[in-house]
Amino acid sequence: MKIATWMTTPHFQHAEIARDCGFEHLVLDIEHGTFDLGALDRFIGFAKALGMGVHAKVLGPTVEAIQQALDFGADSVIIPHILDAAHAEAVCAAAKYPPLGRRSFAGGRCMGYTRQSDDFFPAENVRVRCWPMCETAESLADIENILKLPTVDGIFMGPSDLSLSRGRPNYHFTDDDPRRHRQGRESLRRRRQGLGDARLAGRRARVRHGPETQTGDDGGRAAIRHHSRRLRWPARDARPGRPRRRSPLS
C-alpha cells in the first residue's frame, strides 16, 4: 500500500521534503488550500519532475476545476460535494475522454507537448483516476449506484463533512464507523465483480479515506491507516543520511 501526504500550500520545499521522506504521491487540497491556477500549474510540474504522483482534490464539482487540474498534469482528480449518482454521472464525465466521458482535448503537459497517437485517449482514460468524494448523506445513500458509473474509479471518503451532513458534530471513530467503511469496501467489491471489463481486470480497487488510504485486495481484506501528524520514515533507504537527490530546478 502506497501512502500519500496531504498538501494545502504550493511550497516546493514541502514537496522535496516529502520526496526525501520516501513518499511517492501528493494529494493537493485545492478546495481548502492556497493553490491558484498559476501556483497549481507550477507545483504540479515540479512534483511530476520529482517523479511523484499528483492527486488533485479540486475546487469543486465543476468541469472547469476538473479539466484544469488534469490539463496541468494531475494523475487523478478527487471531486468534493458530490450528491447522488445522477450528480456524479454529470460531473465525473469531465475526467474521461469521449466516448467514455466528455473531457476536452488540450495540448501542453498532459499531452507531453506533442501530438499523441489515437490509442493515447483510451489509455489515458485508464491511467487517470476519478474519485468522487463521499461526504454527504445523499452520496452515502447512493454509493452503490455511484460506483457503477463507468467514469468512476473509486470513492474518496470525507469523514468530517459526512458526519456533519448526517446530523453528527465532529467526526469520531465510533462503533458505527467501521460498518460504514465495510459498506464502502463491499460496494467496491460488488462493482468489480459485476463489471468484469478488461479495464478493471487485475487492478486493485481503492477507497480513499480523507488524508488516509483504505485499500481492498482481491480477498476483500482491508488495511486502514489513519492520518497522523507524526512524520514516519516509510523505508530504510528513505531515512536521513542517504544521498540527497537534486531538485529539478537546481
Total helices: the number is 9
Within CATH, the superfamily carries the name Phosphoenolpyruvate-binding domains
- What CATH calls the topology is TIM Barrel
Please list the strands of the largest sheet in the order they lie side by side.
Answer: 1-2-3-4-5-6-7-8-9
Q: Beta-strand percentage?
A: 15-25%
- Subunit arrangement of the protein: single chain
Measured distance between first and last alpha carbons: 31 Å
CATH architecture label:
Alpha-Beta Barrel
The residue-averaged pLDDT reads: 80
* Gyration radius, rounded: 18 Å
Low-confidence stretches: 198-250
Number of domains: 1
Instruction: Give the proportion of residues in helices.
Output: 25-40%
Helix and strand succession?
EHEHEHEHHEHHEHHEEE
User: How many strand segments?
Assistant: 9
Shape: globular
Largest sheet: 9 strands, mixed
Structural class: alpha/beta
CATH class: Alpha Beta
Structure commentary:
Helices cover 34% and strands 17% of the residues. With 250 residues, it is of the alpha/beta class. The protein has one domain: Alpha-Beta Barrel (TIM Barrel). It has a 9-stranded mixed sheet.
Key attributes of the depicted protein:
alpha/beta; TIM Barrel; 250 residues; 17% strand; single chain; nine-stranded mixed β-sheet
